[in-house]
Amino acid sequence: MLRGSARCTARARRGQMMAHDGAVNGVRLLSPRMVSFVTRNFTGERVDGYMGMPMHRGLGPHSRGTTENIRGLGSLASPRTFGHGGVGSSYCWADPDSGVSFSYLTNSRVPDPWHSARLDQVSNLVHTSIR
Fold this sequence. Notes:
Oligomer: single chain
CATH architecture: 3-Layer(aba) Sandwich
Shape: globular
Distance between the termini: 25 Å
CATH class: Alpha Beta
């Protein structure tokens, strides 16, 4: 639900809609039940074979959960924070607890482990600024 090609502002607005139970600017686009369903952790603590860590996958986004480290969302994110990365270095997440959404787009395709470290660092800077 947070992935796809779009401008940064559109991705952040979509994150706002998801963080606010399916409504943005007073317009309901999804029911709260639908948002809860697609952001639910369907994979639990199972280790993702590609990422080598639990990713708490929903139907599209993955959630922060309580795992010590999770790619992209930052270690300071609330457990209900969810998001999804895109090709290269893009990432978008939303935190229902703070009401903040964040979209990060770059034009560099940095490989892991540097890419994940950079995403976590940038996300933690955002989380620090809203706490």
